[in-house]
Structures are given as C-alpha cells and as structure tokens.
Amino acid sequence: MTTLPLDRTALDPRPDLNMQRGACPALSAPMMTGDGLLARVALTDAVTPAQLAGLCRLALRHGNGILDISARGNLQVRGLTEMSAPLLDTNVRALNLPLREGLAVETPPLAGLDDGEIADPRPLAEAIRQEAHGIEGLAPKMSVVVDGQGTLRLSHLLADIRLIAVRSDGGIRWKLLLGGAEATGRIYGLFGETDAIEAAILLLRELAATGGKARGRDLASGLPLNDGAAPSASLFGIFALSDNLCAAGIGPAFGQAQAEDLIALCTEAERLGVRSLKPALDHSLMFFGPRPACKLLVDFAGRKGFITAPGDPRGNIAACPGSPACSSATIATREIAANAAGEYADLLDGSFKLHITGCPKGCAHPQPAALSLCGTADGVSLIAQGKTTEKPFASVAFADTNASLGRIAELVRAERGEGENSAACLARLGPGRLAAAVMSGRS
Ligand code: SF4
C-alpha cells in the first residue's frame, strides 16, 4: 500500500478558493470559473508525452476533461470541484513534473536548442529563479522574461522585468527593460550576465518591499522607451534545431482541448519517437524530436483538427474561454471565433490577432489589438487599435456580432491596397470607417 505524504489536504479537503479576479489560478489555489474550479499547472521545463498524457487522465478523473493552454503557455485543468481540486494537486505532484513554484521566469520555447539565438537564456533564468526564491511580497502576476533573441521571441508578452540578449563591442550583454511588451518597455540598463542577475534581483526586492502593490512599470518613470521589437514568428509549424533535432509547434483551436484528444496526440508522439514537449506561448505545444517524427506528428495533429501551420486562421484569433466556461463572460467567444475563422480567413492573414473576449478583462490578449470584440451586459463592443477597456467605435446587439464582423471583413476586402496586410488596412481605415461599415447593415 502506498502512503501519501501528510499535507493540508489530508486534514481539510477544501482548497484555498481564490475567487479574486486577476489572481493566478495556481495548482494549490484554484480559481472559480463558470464551469467549476480551474487549476493552473505551470512548468519550468519540458516533459515527456507520457507525462502530459498522465496529466490529461487526471483532468478526466478530477475535472471535466477540458484543458486550456494559456497565452503564456501554462496548462489549465477545468471543471474541478472543491473535493477534486486537492486530489488533482496531490496526483499531479506524484507525476514528478518540473512544476514552477513561485516567480514566473520565462524563456522562449526553443531556448538553448536554437542555433539562431544570441545567447542561451536558460542559465540566467535559472539563476534569477533560484535567487528570487526567498523574496516575499511580490505581486501574484509578477513575471520576468529572459529572451536570447532566437527564432521564436517573447517580445509580445508583458513582463515586469525583461532581459534581452544583445551583441555589443564588449561581447554579449543583456538589455534590461521594465514593464510592458518589448516594444513598450523602458530601458533600465545594459549588463553583463552576473550584473544582469544582480540588477534583476535588486529590482525584485524593491518591488517586493511595496508588499505586492508595485509592478515593473512603476519603477520605469523617466526611463527611455525601448526602440521597437522584431515581430514574433508564428509558433505553429516545424523548426530546425541544433543536434539534428526539430521542434513541431501544434495547438488546439483557441487554446482549449479535450483531454482525450491530447492523450491521442501524446500517444502518437511517443509511438513516433518524439522525446519531449513543452506547453508554449500562443496556446501551443512544442514537441521535440527527429525531423521525420515531427513531420509525421504534425500530419497526425492536422488530421485531428489541431492547428499545425502559421496560415491557419484559427491561430490568428485570441479568444478567452467565454460563455459558459467563465462566469464573467456574456458571449460564447469560441463560437464567434470558429465562425470568424471559417468565414473571414482573408481578414485573418496573420498580420494581427483578432481579439474576442467575454468581458473587458481581456484575459486572452492583455495587449492592444487592431480589432477586438468584447462582450458587455448589453451586447458586443467593437474596439480598434486598443485594449478592451478603451472606447469602442461601435456597439451591437449579441445577434449582430457575426454580421458586424462580416461587414468589417468585406470593407477590408474592398479597400485593401496592393501588398497591404489586414493590420495596416484596419489602421488606415480607422474607427470612423469601421463604425460606418458596421452600422451600414443596421436598420
Ligand atoms: S476575459 Fe474572458 S476568461 Fe477572462 S474574465 Fe473575462 S470572460 Fe472570463
């Protein structure tokens, strides 16, 4: 008989319910949503396909069998109950996964295997993780990004502290930015590796001293704006790596999958000799293995309805779980997203992410978007070139959502200039023209 370690769940089977909006639903502190409790499983390293399949079986046993891969590449198990959430916690820990506890220090999905990167960011990230261990009082969503500037970047992820490898006369240095995405962060300084670790830790201590109130952007006033960022490449498709390895970026549509489908994908990956995988940003899973195995896995995943190529319009939509999964949602975001991907593929050309959100919180895409549809109490707001909290250019009834998007797609089709992509066309048309198009079909 196996003896389970004595922990608080043995004494009290109820988890610490974390109902606060904006808080991170960690494994031991699940968050209430429209379809029950949601627990987050954040990993610091790759796992085997068998380990992910094991996690999926736990999602079936303890939850409703639905898993999300978040925009930042965290796994989320949905549909847990007060009784089952602590059991999931205990069972997940028994899988021996590289679970992240504490501060999120993120590196790009191909870090350390990417011949194109200026520097391997993992040692620096690991040193920050270790040094930050004893720092108490950081904001729950505090995050550090360490980016070696390889094929896949974390440039659009928001970060409190961001370190980017750069080449300089003195060799490789790390540019430290505070707050925002890479293009909107503020330059704090340029450091060698050891000094970069020290600077990041000092800043974290300064932020912690505010008792979780301050974020990276709060330390950035007066600092110069970073001068732009290279656009992030699509996570989907096959990437050549060092040591004759390849990575295959595969994702469920709109970041959500049935556990059975992921188990089938993992079983096939194992059969083909794919060695490991990582949940990655943009709701993707990055599988690592020999090129033929990756190629066959991509074919299999495509047949099963996963996103496998950059051109898939579903990969160009950021949709939160929406109704009925989230109790704050007023619209079925994924139904609208599926319709948009099927009907308006030409609008979704990869130049921007169409943001479809159940409420203004904008979980799926906290950054500004060229076009957002946001559920409200009365209908749907349409926002151009901004965050979902900004003033909409039009508001329509729930029933008019798809037709309104259709009118925008039609306008872009008609007005698109030679060689102009959808993002540029939407920006050029501006909110006035977009509003006129939306209102044109209404009596
Ligand atoms: S953005 Fe979506 S998932 Fe987030 S709270 Fe609002 S409805 Fe829920």
Automatic annotation (TrEMBL):
Q: Where is the Nitrite/Sulfite reductase ferredoxin-like domain positioned along the sequence? A: 38-82
Keywords (alphabetical) are: 4Fe-4S, Heme, Iron, Iron-sulfur, Metal-binding, Oxidoreductase
What PANTHER family does the annotation carry?
BLR3264 PROTEIN, FERREDOXIN--NITRITE REDUCTASE, CHLOROPLASTIC
What Pfam family does this protein match (any one)?
NIR_SIR_ferr
GO MF annotation list: 4 iron, 4 sulfur cluster binding; metal ion binding; oxidoreductase activity
Source organism superkingdom = Bacteria
SUPFAM superfamilies linked to this entry: Nitrite and sulphite reductase 4Fe-4S domain-like, Nitrite/Sulfite reductase N-terminal domain-like
Please identify the protein, giving its name as recorded: Precorrin-3B synthase
Cited InterPro entries: Cbl_synth_CobG-like, NIR_SIR_4Fe-4S, NiRdtase/SiRdtase_haem-b_fer, Nit/Sulf_reduc_fer-like_dom_sf, NO2/SO3_Rdtase_4Fe4S_sf
Q: Does the keyword Lyase apply?
A: no
